[in-house]
Amino acid sequence: MSLPPHGGTLINRIASPEVRDEILRFVQNDRGGKVRDDSDTDVLQGVPTPEQRHCERSEAISKKVLQGVPTREQRHCERSEAISKKVLQGVPTRQPSPLNSLTLNAWEQSDLEMIAIGAFSPLEGFMDKSTYDSVVHTGHLSNGLPWTLPIVLSTTPEKAGNLKEVSDVVLKDESQHPLGILHLEEKYPYDKKEFAREIFLTEDENHPGVAVVYAQGDVLLGGKITLLERKKPQQFLKYRLDPVETRKAFQELGWKTVVGFQTRNPIHRAHEYLQKCAMEIVDGLLIHPIVGETKSDDISAEVRMRCYEVLMEHYYPKDRVMLAVNPANMRYAGPKEAIFHAIVRKNYGCTHFIVGRDHAGVGNYYGTYDAHYIFDNFDKEKLGITPLFFEHAFYCKSCGNMASVKTCPHGKEQHVFLSGTKVREMLRAKQLPPVEFTRPEVAKVLMEGS
User: Fold this and answer.
1) How far apart are CA 443 and CA 450, in angstroms?
2) 264 annotated active-site
3) Domain boundary at 209, 227, 245, which?
4) Predicted TM-score (pTM) above 0.70
């Protein structure tokens, strides 16, 4: 089965507001078995609920955007409510209780939300063993669709011992507010070193993605999820668009072809050059920066977002560019994450995806263009999005413009290139990077934020 353009059919794992409220009253917290009172649920009632909009609008949007592709959104909303009603009716093996609960960290909360809103479609939950094994060893889901990164929920053997398979587990945040339900189907061990070796191509614990895996619990929990509550975001509110919303926006703008640009860094002249080259062959550009967890030495999301805003204000046609945040975590899996990023952007409605040098790389773990070569291993129809490959770009003094090795005949001594380390050193010294490297407005924002 191949997914059609604009992301195919979105998976929706969000409970309706009515069912959510009933479950939240039913689920006991850990404070002496007390049922949450009105003061507890007041916080929840004030949270915007785009999940209701998803369920109500999904069929209409799918008909318009997907042009007749059979919709599964309504089916998933109904299934989600049916599962939740079983919980409310007191089915013995599916009752949530204070014992059957897990506290999620920020990384896991992000994955929960990304699954629920369809950003990780076609996933409906955290991977079971057969799906995990298939992804780790083949880069595909069990049904043959491309998928290169395990999306898993871990716990300790001690906590896993308290959880029964074929039961419901309440998923809570750090404040013990219920966020969702894991319909637990399977508990299974896994080899962390194999995970690291197959996905990150290294077992080195200094790799940030490997470090996350090694810090996880030793048992994985597989099963579909139902999202009860989305944590109210504190930042970038106007840019927090779900897949169903970006698709609708593209349609309203008349964009039939959209190129997505993944970034965790400020956009400098080289990135701008790639984006504008791509814009010559598509209707619109989605700048889609990661605002989930990144490395500690990456530039903060707040500073990066301001850089994107000033760049769009001064150097991009406003009717052909959209900025929206991607709340996912950065995994630094290099070539395998390039495939993953492309699939996620397909779910957001993109038809094309920019892949530059060392995409999603870190340090010297991956080859400069490994993220290009990996696409040769995947069926184009099943992937469902067109990658646009770009060589390393730079400003050439002799050419007097931005170029790449494909278009510039001059030697490296004529090329203006600064490493991220060099830029950070200049900013700390209150020196503006040269205009050939970054726009003055961006440099000013970076200096103010350094």
Assistant:
1) 10
2) yes
3) 227
4) yes
